[in-house]
Amino acid sequence: MKVMETTSARGRVIQPSVTLELSAKAKAMAAAGEKVLNLSAGEPDMPTPAPIVEAAHRALDEGHFGYTAAAGVPPLREAIAEDRTQRCGVQFSGANVVVTNGAKQALFNALSTATDPGDRVGVPLPYWVTYAEQVRALGCEPVFIDCPAATGFAMDSDALDAALAKDLRVMILNSPSNPTGAVWSKQQLGSVLDRIAQTDALILSDEIYEDIVFVESGHVAPLSLMPDLASRCCVVSGLSKAFAMTGWRVGYTVAPLDWTRAMNALQGHSTSNICAISQQAALAAVGRTDLVAPMVEVFRARRDRCMVHVDSIDLLSAHTPEATFYLYLDISRVLQAEGLPDDVDALANWLLDEHKIALVPGSAFGDPLHLRLSFASSDEVLDEAFARLAAALGG
Ligand SMILES: Cc1ncc(COP(=O)(O)O)c(C=O)c1O
Fold it and tell me: Which of 24, 38, 69, 262 has the greatest number of CB atoms lying within 10 Å of its CB?
């Protein structure tokens, strides 16, 4: 019988998520009884705050069991619009909002409806792994723009100019950044936006870590700096990270009306609305910075704890993360050291297999010189992980 090709060229191009795969391997090792410390996952280790969980219980009791509008129930869309208006100083209404299955679907809706095959999409490097894969899955070409470690991961302006000269259809921005934990200052972001404003590129601003920020200056929203860009900017955010709600799957887009109409239509023919119970829970969360603040303080203390550990290991260094729960370990000296693995993937595998620590290799983010450590774990786990790293790499 003829063997049928079941995938298209576009289907074959998509690679699985390295971070999800690595996390799954670490979990499988732990399930088999190995004492693995899994610092690879991108999710808070705290429970969702009680008022949000209680709202979900009420939603079950009240019987929110049916379909909702594909873009989400009106009160939730209005609440998200109001919250975004306060953050950016740009007037939004519920009509600008589509509530999505996490920020991942928000990005996919936005890219799917803004690009045609062959378009170029600017992606800051190092990049969150999903950007490149979504861009390629849509038949577009990622154009990577260097954000070098030496400048605290600010975008290199020559690299940005070179990318913009290639006629980008969309420019992805991600401050605060996964994987680096860097926050762009007003000045750094302003210089990037000035350049983009001189072109016809659309902006896709992923601000999912906007509330987990440790620097006093806080997160700078692109639209708060340059409100005029609102007519060509789609903001992506969601509740997964700040509210410890990864499994509830609540993300959203806030975008111009024509872009929103297209995303709403796409979602209506793909997933329809997100879970109705999650929407009621989200309604109890949006705007509740008081629920987020205690978790941010926990992350800040853990970040400081990790930096003390890093300083005690000669072969490691790290940019102090200004946000997120990621520590981006510079391993360039490790790779040059005698007797240790000499490439980032081999190093990550060796650390997992031999020392039972799961970290994400920078290759997943287009960067061979770093490992990402998630400090969304208890102090005890972090202390033990650094003790193992010190033993593996020499103190
Ligand atoms: C930068 C960035 N954007 C978007 C997402 C997706 O978040 P969600 O779980 O809401 O889909 C993640 C999750 O890891 C992320 O790190």
Answer: 38
For residue 374, is pLDDT > 90?
yes
18, pLDDT greater than 90: no
Give the total residue count for the chain: 395
Task: Choose one of 18, 100, 104, 133 to mutate for the ligand 1 pocket test, by most ligand atoms within 8 angstroms of C-beta.
Answer: 104
Ligand 1 pocket, mutate which of 241, 248, 278 (most atoms under 8 A from CB): 241
Q: List the CATH code of the domain at 9-48+290-393.
A: 3.90.1150.10
Tens of pLDDT, residue by residue over 62-78, are 999 999 999 999 999 99
Residue 16's pLDDT band, with cuts at 50, 70 and 90, is: confident
The closest of 365, 331, 327, 371 to 348, measured between CA atoms, is: 371
Q: How far is the CA of 107 from the centre of ligand 1 (A)?
A: 9
The reply to whether ligand 1 has any atom less than 6 angstroms from the CB of 120 is no
19 CB under 6 A from ligand 1?
no
Residue with tokens 């799917």: 112
For residue range 93-133, what is the model confidence (pLDDT) as tens digits? 999 999 999 999 999 999 999 999 999 999 999 999 999 99
Instruction: Answer yes or no: are the C-beta atoms of 179 and 360 closer than 8 Å.
Output: yes
DSSP 8-state secondary structure symbol assigned to residue 318: E
User: What H or E segment, with its residue span, contains residue 79?
Assistant: helix 74-88
238 lines ligand 1 (CB under 6 A): yes
Domains 9-48+290-393 and 50-285 equal at CATH topology level = no
CATH node for 50-285: 3.40.640.10
**158 burial via Cβ count (<10 Å: 0-12, 13-18, 19+):** exposed
What proportions of the chain, in percent to the nearest 5, are helix, strand and coil? Answer: 45, 15, 40
